[in-house]
Model the fold of this input.
Amino acid sequence: MKTFNNTVLKTIMSPSEQQRLNADEEIIKELCVSNGVSYEKVSQEGCGVVELEMFFSGLPRMVGLFLFPRLSKLTIVGQTISLIQGLECCPVLNELWVVECRLNEISGLQKCLQLQRLFLYDNNIQHITNLELLVNLEVLWLNKNQISDIEGLSLLVNLKELNLADNVIKKLGHSLDQNISLQNLNLSGNKISSLKELTHLTRLSQLRHLSLKGPTSSPNPVCLLYNYYIHILYHMPHLESLDTYDVSTKQLKDNADSTVLKKIMYYTMRVRSAQRQFDDLKTKIRQQWRDQIQLPEKRIWMLTHMVKNLECELSGIQDVGRKSEEPGGLTSDILLHKLDALRDRLKIWEQHLKELEACYQREVALAYDRKEMMVQLLLLQLETVGNIRFEEGNTGEPWFTPCYDLLLSRFCALDYKPHHITGMKINRIVRIHNRALRLRFQEKLDSLVSVESSAFSQDHKHNMEYLFHVPDPEHSCGRDEILHILENGFKTADACEALGRNRAVPLSNSLSVCDRLQMTFLQRTSECNHADPLPFRNGQLIISKVFLGRSTAVKEGVPIHCDLYPKVHSVYLSFDLKQQTELTAPDCDCRQRQKLWYIFDHELVLPEYLVDFEYITQDTSKLPSPPDSSPVNTSIAVEPSVPRPELDLDEKALKMDPILKPHPKMLSIDEKSILAVAKANVLSQITVLNLHGNSLNKLCEISRLTALQRLTLSFNNFTRLDDISHMPNLEYLDVSFNRIATLEGLRGLGRLKELDLRWNQLTRVKDDMNVLRKHTPALLRLDTRHNPWNRYECVHMVILGRLKTLTHLDGTVVMEEEAAATVQMGAQSRISQASLVAHSRTDTERPRSLSLLSSAHLLTQISLSPWKHSLELEPGWASKITALNLDGQQLTRLGNLDQLVNLRWASFDNNELSYIEGLEHWPLLEELSLNCNSICRFEVQCTLNRLTRLSINSNQLQCLDGDVLDRLPNLQFLSVENNIISSLHGFQRSRALIELYIGNNEISTSREIFYLKALSSLIILDLHGNPLVKLENYRIYMVFHLPSLRALDGVAVEMCESETAKMYEGRLTADMVAEKLGHCNYRDLSELSMESSSVRFVDLTPADLFRNLRSINLEHNNLTSCGSLIFLPNIKVLFLNHNHIESILPRQKLQSHMSTKQVLHHKVTSSGYGLRNSRFNREKAPSDNLEPLMPTLQVLHLGYNGITSLMNLQLRRLTNLRALVLQGNDISQVEGLEGLQRLRELVLDRNRIKFLKENSFCGQLVLVDLHLAENRICELNHLQPLAGLRRLFLDMNKIQDISELEKLEVLPSLVELSVVGNPVSRRSLHRQAVVLHLSRLQVLDGITITFEERTRAELLSNEAQGSTSSSVSDVTLPGLAPLIIRPAPSRRTSLNTGILTFFSDQQEDMHDTFRFRKQRAGVSLLRGLQSDVSFRQIRGPFSLYTTALQPIRQRVFSTYPNIDSENRFRYHSGPRPPPPL
Done:
């Protein structure tokens, strides 16, 4: 039947059709053979075939598929098919393979609605089309085609796998947003070069497998960028494999998150630094403006004052209705003539003031634009994860000077002669590092060189040029185009043509040529709005590296199109002499070199530098010089000058007739003076009162003027208007040119229609307008100009919003449009259902985006509102809101938000909030932004455990209570910049804090930093703009006390700074004292103990803070000098035992520049630094030449300091010292004490003293106690100066002969002596000899000398002289007990055995060579055990020598701690020694 039908068809077909039919039959036969189907029975068996395959058979087209209506899988590989057809009869087709063929388009699939898997790779498909109906498609392979754009897939919501590898795709955009089921995406081998393009894939929440660099495909250019993997893993944490690598481990995701978090923190800091620089620059510009307007304001004040005087005089003349006919008399005409002249001068000065204001606003706007550009560059660096980087230029960079010189060489002043431009100033040069563009440029250049001739290839470097480009403002926004060029390069030829430009990139080697379009456009715009006379004064240009290749001149009449200039890479337009205009001098040859280039291929243009420049006019002409590395300092460029003739005209107008006589100024006013001024008899008759030009600040009687209608109080000294109240008839009030700071107190003015508030000190527009709204309901005219309003930009709208009756504001009529806009703004100031719908989102997760925006801002930008109309809202809709952005809504309170129980991210910036309420309704809140409001106190009534970010910048906060921060336990980011916070108290409770921004506040003392020491996680701190940052070594100080910091005030903390910060280790400062004490009430401090605190240097400055300090204990530290202790004015007792004191004064440092502290030390004349280094000077320099130190110091402890020389200590300068303790050192000579003439007690125990020099005690005439125990003294010479010495302790020395003790006869006042442990003490008669020779001695070796003992000694001496043969030991006298040496009683029973043993064994040699050998490290074993114990037992068990002097309110240690000062000798039976004289 089939054969018969074919035969019939052939009879009616043309030959070509017959040939085609025959070919189709052959194809069907081959198809049947390939799949095991009988061709003859295909019509019967074809219905049962579900799968067909056809491989590499040269199949030209798809035919015969109607024979297989139940076909579910069709595979065609390696055929010559160019079109998909014949599938209309295969409605159940599930899988289709048409691969390695010649398909040019996707078609013929409209009926295959059951298709789930489609493979069309390795074809010639250029566009993705005709897939909209395949809604069941799950797998789509279109790899190895020529697809450039992803399109036509938006309806494939079930698509799970998409393979677009090896195409020419450059951008992703939002093309895959609707494919929410996509799990596997292969984009390898394409042309994607931007990391920002990959962020579009974040919307594919089901994506698990992504490939951009497959093993069988070339990588995308984006894969060669830095941080490629980090960027993808951060944005798509749900990925399981990337480029065939397993990335499912949590460690990889955490590393990516950590890296990105650090980058976000870093760029947050950089952006804030840019904002800070702008604020500083704005302040500087404002200060310059304030300086410039002083003269106009002074002139306006003077002229207005005179006008008011004349108006007052004129009103007086008009009131009495008289005209003086006398010669020289005042007339209205004369006064009016002078008034007109003065008012004309006033208009001129007011216009001049407006010009200065406009100039100031232009400069601020320019600085703002530059700041915004810098912020955008920083954000671009963040978004590209550092693959685009911008390097600020300075003279230290090797590339900077060549670039600077290139710019100057391409500038010709004659080109700008009509504009009076004489030069250019380069404000900033930024080098551009765009890795993607550089790779693209190099790849393109390499491909061109490889295919060109060898001569061209070898000479290609000579075709490189640096050319300029300035965006055309008529076709695009300059800043946006610059940012686009910096990120993506120049536009393609097609894009340029779409904008109405030539199909090429325009560049020039001349600044005037590339800037002419912008100059023309801005000049035309400026003429329309009468703005700046030189609107193009400031500009930006891009310097690009360009490969010119083969170039030719532009042909006249031939459009600039690459097709019209074959084999040419660029064309140029020359400005030769024939094209010169009158703008250029004929003798200038710049035009011969100036060219306008057009580059056909945008990939051959690489932007490398961004330049901010400024044209210099004749009045501001300066020689150009390279800028330094600091940020550009903008100054007011156009300064309207004030020529001298203008001032002369003022004087002429002021001196015009009549010259009014000055009237006396009233300082106060009473009823009599009011009646005199008003020329009335009773107060109730006064309707007009002019008190202009006085010195009034009070109006006590004014409320009695019940009929008063007009009141003038200009040019007085009012600061408030409390007295002007309850005046029911007052209609006009002029209080201009006063000092009014607030309108509070003004009340009861129901008929007031006109109010003049110019030139006052009003700042709080909201509060003041509320007063007027309440108490002046009929007000029609209001003038508030020249007041220092806060938030000046919104003053006009605030006034109109609150005073709806106004018809004139600031001298202009209130238009209906303004009033309507104000009413609309007022309606928006309340949180309504409509505003919630418009500004809220319901996203459950914060977008993973490299953005510095808050979550609320970010979500409202990138997400669509879930509610299309407020009428469609379902019950409980508000509980679904997670993000709310109500910035700039003029809100005064947060109401109607209690239902937002799931709110997580909220922003209320730029409103008028004064307090915060309702936070307890948002338990899930994570981020809160309250910038630019009027909040004075931030309070939280409940604990917000999830709040991690809080921003309250630009408010009126004075502090943040610790209780509030306690309720924010997980706060990590806190920003409170631009407030009035003066203390960091309470911040220590926010222990989770990582970033703290508190710049531009009022923190002034360094001790505030101690509140931050508890914040161990704090790594970023910004204190810029606080008085604290002006302190010396502020930065090093901060780094030392906060070692966890990684960035401070917008600058990274360097390793060298951390090393330098070690200079503060062990530095005792006022802040350290405050930290220890918990307060800073230094003036109440009388005692200070800092034992074992590792103190190395004392820096208690200013010393006046510690004027009440009397006693300081710094034992067991690492001091080498007294430091600033020498400046304490009232210090009396100083404990410095166990340190390393070398000198009272700090060691001199050899350096050319002295620090503040060194200058302070050098204020002490003749500090003696040089004397310490010279033995000759030590001996020769008299003490009188040195200024005394520490005049109030009475007690000084320097024990155990390793001191070797007393001369180096400079103790002679402590002239008022009463007690000096130096035990436990290595002193070998007693010297340098000549200045201590008031010294009463000296302790030199445990040293290395062997002998005393002649001048050892030359100045100690009043010395009472001298301790020389445990030394090496064997001779007791040169003690004659110690005439007042009463107690001498020589224990544990090497005195052997009694004759040495007899030398003590030169001490007439000596009453106590101890020589225990000396060789001489082991002889039985040493005590007898000492008692005999020292007649005034009362205590020897700790035992009182009794009368009986002294009598026995005298008798024994007499017998010895009479009979030398008698033994001394056998002599006894009647009535006298034998002499027995007994140990002194002791309170410590544990030591009794040792001391008794010592005295019982008197034959033992206590000073043998072994036990008293020289040791540097410490005392000998004897000193440490037996001798020391016995000696301490006699002297008392106290190891620390202290003085008996007892200054008032100080800790006092007795020399004998176990013995009361009044009962010091109570253990002995002898009489107590008399007190010292």
User: Anything to note?
Assistant: The first helix runs from residue 2 to 12. The CA atoms of residues 360 and 1435 lie 84 Å apart. DSSP finds 36 helices and 49 strands in the chain. The mean pLDDT is 82.
